[in-house]
Amino acid sequence: MTKQIRTNVLGYPRIGAKRELKKVIEDFWKGTYSQDELLKVAGDLRIENWKIQKKEGITLIPSNDFSLYDQMLDMSCLLGAIPSRFDWDGSEIDLDLYFRLARGKSKTDGSDQSNVLPCEMTKWFDTNYHYIVPELTEDTDFRISSSKVFSEFKEACDLNIMTKPVLIGPVTYLLLSKNPDKENFNPLELLHKLIPVYCEIVKRLEDAGAEWIQLDEPIFSTDINEDALKALQISYDTISKAISTAQLIVANYFGGLGEHLSTFTNLPVQALHIDAVRAPSEAALVCDAICNDKLLSVGIVNGRNIWKNNFEDSLNTLRVLLSKVGKERLLVATSCSLLHSPAALASETEMEDEIKNWLSFSEEKIKEVVVLAKALTGNESVSDELKQNKEAMQLRQSSSLINKEDVKNRCNTVKPENYNRTLPYQERKVIQKARFNLPELPATTIGSFPQTIEIRKKRADFKKNVISRSEYEEFLKNEIKETISKQEILDLDVLVHGEAERNDMVEYFGEQLDGFVFTKFGWVQSYGTRCVKPPIIYGDISRQVPITLEWICYAQSLTERPVKGMLTGPITILQWSFVRDDQPRSETAKQIALALRDEVQDLEKSGIGIIQIDEPALREGLPLKKADWAEYLRWAVDCFRLCANGVKNETQIHTHMCYCEFNDIMDSIAALDADVISMEAARSKMELLRAFSDSKYPNDIGPGVYDIHSPRVPSVDEMVQLLEKALTVIPREYLWVNPDCGLKTRKWEETIESLGNMVKAAKTLRNT
After folding, report:
1. Which of 288, 410, 479, 738 counts the most CB atoms within 10 A of its CB?
2. How far is 496 from 565, CA to CA, in rounded Å?
3. pLDDT at position 18 over 60
């Protein structure tokens, strides 16, 4: 009998098929679930994940990929890298401290530590997943301070499931950290203190019986320098000597190795993992470069999208690699962790069969990995799967659901003038000032207000036909009316309607555009307990009727103050959707931009004078290598301008961006030519503003003055200090006052108190 080629999964979704983990953690925070109840649900989910993978025949099943909040936070806890402000006593890190690190507030809201600032959060490479940024200083000492990785490995062993513990690699961990108090901090200077702890961790895992240990080093896919490459070599020279029987696999994903290929292939470990989805042309080069006894894990099943693997194409690639390394040294794998994919397609009982036949979620992806491994050895048991896959590929290619000639024609007839405003910003600013007559340091919010239990219930009741459309719309109007009233009482200067009618900022728009389809349980984790259900873009995109017009106009009718029209921008809709893979992403983005352009123009025609087009994912879409940035930024900026710039000069265009580093793309941010940009800045204590200062950004800016991802209420003085810091780099006449982001996930009580303090802070500075 031909020996089966081994299979490898880098990580598995942890929130549960129906967000079970989210619900129990949030109940724990509310005090309605005990710690034991929380840990029981978490444990059950872990066990279920392991059993699913074992049943399908996965050889290397991951452990320690499960987390109650974030895997980077877990790594900081394992290493004892706890910022001094948390007054950690050095004991085993408990849930109270764990959640304070993430949220700034734990279940024990009344404790002395209940108002400590949480750690910063930012995007995980080019995904929409957010990680908790490690805070390190020259004085940071590392030591094993959490038993999680060891206890979860033992938990699986007790079930007779041999797992492969997964760790964030030391160099990726260090290079994704920061010292919030020192701009030029070099985290690699801590490598000599960190590596001995990694050695201790892998040795303890080996002693516990681990046969394989995975260390993730996706930093290889970025533009790292020679010092980082040397650090990688030193790290694995040392770690590999700490063990004798366990085997190490170093995983790179999210991109290609490029000029780092030689360093990667020469690491003194037993196996390497590459992302053959993001960098297909490198797979053969890696095969040629590795030594004769090293194993190669080939990430051929895409962990970041929901389309079925094309078995014919994948097998053509794998057969070439098999001929180079042989079946003993080849592992068929997911490209990255399946954290970025929904749990199971089987739950989608209401989706159109034709489209469903094109899709694959996490459970299906691990089956694809196994089918490919079996097919490589000529195993006849998968002949039906191969035949069905080929038929699905052909049906998708010829489907009439996908291609719309009128959409393609419109894209082809866009003119250069469609991208530009008729006057430059400085002249528009004068016209807009006369129209709106706003005070100095105008106060506003980003868009959404709390999505209460009642709102979510009414939406669910409407979708289930429990209540009529007229009842639902009347409810929404009452919510909007109350939201406008509360903002007027708070004395905000520019109001929003609150987005009570919206489930998700991308899903809501996708539901009303042609070319999108939606799942019922297609949840993926964004951060902590925040989950999103990305739309699926399967075909050409167009807008048939207005999307936001009715609600924005109703809100404006209730007040004399300006109400912002709120739209999600084309790049964010693209980035936060599962995007079709049969045409360039730039073409799909252009189709979205034209659909939104129609919405912008309808809002303006109806008298809405301020329109915000959110692009929190603009930087997220950057390729990981700078050499590839220019082309992406060109079409991304063009798409924003295409949707935004068909308006008159007196119409004020806003945009919003989330946590990201702006320094390297300031020219592109300025090229958007938005009249006002707002951004998240509170957690980084206005650090992001340095980029806007250095570049002499020409338009208005609204840096966030309080962190909406934490339930803590910032004081007036705290926000005044942040605004004073902002005023050192932004002229008063260009500065807006707003929270970091939308307030959808917050509660009304804390929202009112925080916004009240924010308005007081703005008024305090107006009088100085």
Report:
1. 738
2. 7
3. yes
Q: For residue 206, count other CB atoms closer than 10 A to its CB.
A: 17
Q: Which residues face 6 on adjacent strands?
A: 331
709 noted as active-site residue: yes
Q: Are 629 and 584 in contact (CB under 8 A)?
A: no
Q: Where in the chain is the domain with CATH 3.20.20.210?
A: 6-398, 442-766
- Give yes or no for a contact between 541 and 588, defined as CB atoms under 8 angstroms apart: yes
Q: Which residue has the tokens 């987390």?
A: 67
> Which tokens is 493 given?
């200067």
What per-residue confidence (pLDDT) applies to 181? Answer: 86
Taking the C-alpha atoms of residue 409 and residue 418, their distance in angstroms, rounded to an integer, is 15
- What is the pLDDT at residue 684? 67
CA torsion angle 353 358 364 368 (round to 10): 140
CA angle 607-611-616, nearest 5°? 165
How far is Cα 144 from Cα 732, in angstroms, rounded to an integer?
48
User: What topology is assigned to 442-766 in CATH?
Assistant: TIM Barrel (3.20.20)
Phi first, then psi, for residue 454 (nearest 5°) are -65, -40
Q: Do you know the residue count of the chain?
A: 768
- 611 vs 643: CA distance, rounded Å: 11
Q: What is the spatial distance between Cα 748 and Cα 502, in angstroms, rounded to a whole number? A: 17
> pLDDT tens, 27-53?
999 999 999 999 999 999 999 999 999
Q: How far apart are CA 404 and CA 540, in angstroms?
A: 6
Residues 6+ apart with CB under 8 A from 400: none
Cβ atoms of 255 and 235 closer than 8 Å: no
Q: What is the pLDDT of residues 655-708, one digit of tens each?
A: 998 755 677 788 899 999 999 999 887 766 676 677 777 777 889 999 888 888
Architecture of the domain made up of 6-398: Alpha-Beta Barrel (3.20)
Q: Quick check: helix, strand or coil at residue 676?
A: strand
Name residue, tokens 């990201």: 660
In this predicted structure, the answer to whether residue 521 has a pLDDT above a threshold of 60 is yes
Nearest to 50 by CA among 147, 163, 212: 163
Concatenated DSSP letters of 718-764:
HHHHHHHHHHTTS-GGGB-BB-SS--TTS-HHHHHHHHHHHHHHHHH
* Integer angstrom CA distances of residue 66 from 48, 166, 492: 12, 10, 42
Spatial neighbors of 360 by CB under 8 A, at least 6 apart, are 306, 307, 308, 309, 345, 368
- The string of pLDDT tens digits covering residues 564-615 is 999 999 999 999 999 999 999 999 999 999 999 999 999 999 999 999 999 9
Give dist(CA 494, CA 636) in Å, integer: 28
DSSP lists the bridge partners of residue 249 as: 214, 271
Bridge partners for 656 per DSSP? 678
Cβ of 566: how many Cβ atoms within 10 Å?
28
In contact, 295 and 333? CB cutoff 8 Å: no
CB half-sphere exposure, 404, CA atoms < 13 A:
15
Q: Global pTM? A: 0.89
From CA 224, how far away is CA 658, in angstroms rounded? Answer: 24
What CA dihedral angle connects 578, 658, 278 and 358, to 10 degrees? 0
Mean confidence (pLDDT) of the chain: 94
- Give the position of tokens 């709120």: 566
Segment 281-304, tens digit of pLDDT: 999 999 999 988 899 999 999 999
pLDDT of residue 292: 86
Full DSSP string of 417-474: GGG--SS-HHHHHHHHHHHH-PPSS-B---SB----HHHHHHHHHHHTTSS-HHHHHH
